[in-house]
Amino acid sequence: MAKELPKTDVVIVGLGWTGGIIAAELAKKGYKVVGLERGKERKTEDFLMGHDELRYASRFELMQDLSKETITFRNNTKMRALPMRQYGSFLLGDGVGGAGTHWNGMTVRFLPYDFEIKTKTIERYGKDKIPADMTLQDWGITWDVIEPYFDKFEQMCGISGEENPLHGKRSNPYPTPPMKSTPAINLFMEGSKSLGLHPYRLPSANLSENYKNPDGIERAACQYCGFCERFGCEFGSKADPIVTVIPVAKQTGNFELRTNANVTKIIHDGKKATGVIYIDTNTGEEIFQPAEVVSVTSYVLNNVKLLLISQMGTPYNPDTGRGVVGKNYAYQTMGASAVGFFENREFNTYAGAGALGAALDDFNGDNFDHSDLEFIHGGIISLSQTGKRPIANNTTKDAERNWGKDFKQQSVKYANRTLNIGSQGASMPYRHHFLDLDPTYKDAFGHPLLRITFDFEEQDRKLIEFTGTQAGKIMEAMGADHVITSNKRGPYNIVPYQSTHNTGGAIMGAEPETSVLNNYLQMWDFHNVFIPGASAFPHNSGYNPTATVGALAYRAAEGIEKYLQQGGLLV
């Protein structure tokens, strides 16, 4: 029998961005908050002199242990799903800070179009533009409502950026100016403008200057060391829950962090959650933490798994299209890119930062006419200078040959003479893309693994063909002597790495028949359970998800406080 602890106001499951924001916001208001994190605690000091590419980038020091818990994957329901035994397509963060510790820092807001995507698409192109098996839906929230929460997240992080000419109206400018503009970035900006496009420097959580945020947290400017993604920041320059919101929560005296606490189930009576069961992985003890509110703030896939194991909400059925938990799993449509080789010009590509770069949105969202195109939405096109670390980067003209004398000669020649333009495309939901519990494989605690059923569709292939072609045109305008364009997309596979931008499965919306959550990220069926994070996205946009994750977390924190004050379903 589980050991029962004293009841708290709020229990939080997972201490990344969403959990950290909710902990800080509610603890500041005087509520008692318990944060449960199954990994270990991390501090900035842990990353001092941590420029170890093999340890962090290749051997995944900051990631979940797949021998204890992983996922299974298949392309369709006719295939047998198999476990992901080694990291490839995406990386599941572990420990305090979660993916907010090892992310790059690109912090772009979703477009106003995204939040009303079904309505806006039909208004402009008619119902026939949406394929019959595409389960597209609006988010149940509009730009005017969500925009202030984007601003709050940016002010907390100190996001460095400049105005995006093709985006929605902002209530405030970015709190810090954009990062440095390198020769490579300048070349991208000039080449794009020569084609009549509208580039802007990327909004970055890597600080361009020293910054003090509204909570009084002070952080130093980025050193451009080139060790951001898959690494923690030794300077605290990259916005991370462990150097922003979690210290604020701790300082209140109202927040208790428990590490090595693996939550296995939400306990409820069918209408209301009463708390959570977790395993202390140091002792093996099973513990029940009662709470007035349960906030599920783990990673996308773990959020959905916890709901399904706890039998909360109606599981999605792809055959009937009914049910909501597991519905609208989406990813990111990657693969469109252009590599440029410069025979007589060198760039210092080994210096950089996670979100150092420039981008354009001319081919993103509905910023361009889709009338004669066989896809909707689009993607951001960008040139990023993240730092070409030596193990993972060896660009040659002959991509098929990765050994021998010629390969070594090309590697040396082009080490500083290649630039890459990439695109992140939006991922639309389909009836046959979903998450459920695997009937065969189990985790270390005997619970079923989560199963992903997903593949790229014709929508994705057409989008990549289009954006890849645009990237090639920009690279040519930049004056590259030789351009290799990638604009083809085969079936989705769990390898190689593509992006850690999994979304959906516990989505928000306007009614309980089509969604798990309302626009306060509150469960329709269990009013004291809130689930912010990318699992709430009804589709994935052509951007990194973190800015939208942060905005929804602030919205959820406001909703939790309202619930604690008045109870019931929020409107």
Key terms:
8-stranded mixed β-sheet; 12 helices; FAD/NAD(P)-binding domain; globular; 20 strands; 571 residues; alpha/beta
Give the helix/strand layout.
Blueprint lengths: L2 E2 L3 E6 L3 H12 L4 E4 L16 H6 L12 E4 L7 E2 L15 H4 L9 H4 L1 H9 L17 H15 L25 H12 L5 E2 L9 E2 L5 E2 L25 H7 L3 E4 L2 E8 L4 E8 L4 E12 L3 H10 L27 E5 L15 E4 L18 E6 L19 H10 L4 E8 L8 E9 L5 E6 L4 H20 L4 E5 L42 E2 L15 H21 L5
Parallel strand pairs: 1-12, 2-3, 2-12, 3-9, 4-18, 12-20
Antiparallel strand pairs: 4-5, 6-14, 7-8, 10-11, 11-12, 13-16, 13-19, 14-15, 15-16, 17-18
Pfam families: GMC_oxred_C
GO molecular function: oxidoreductase activity, acting on CH-OH group of donors
Protein name: Gluconate 2-dehydrogenase (Acceptor)
Outline of this structure?
The chain has 571 residues and is an alpha/beta fold.
CATH class: Alpha Beta
Shape: globular
Please give the radius of gyration in angstroms: 23 Å
CATH second-level architecture = 3-Layer(bba) Sandwich
Main β-sheet description? 8 strands, mixed
Q: Enumerate how many helices there are, as a single number.
A: 12
CATH fold topology: FAD/NAD(P)-binding domain
Overall structural domain count: 1
Helix percentage: 10-25%
| Class by SSE composition | alpha/beta
Mean pLDDT: 96
Q: Could you tell me the number of beta strands? A: 20
Oligomeric state: single chain
Strand content: 15-25%
Family: Belongs to the GMC oxidoreductase family.
Keywords: FAD, Flavoprotein, Oxidoreductase
Domain Glucose-methanol-choline oxidoreductase C-terminal: 436-553
Organism: Schinkia azotoformans LMG 9581
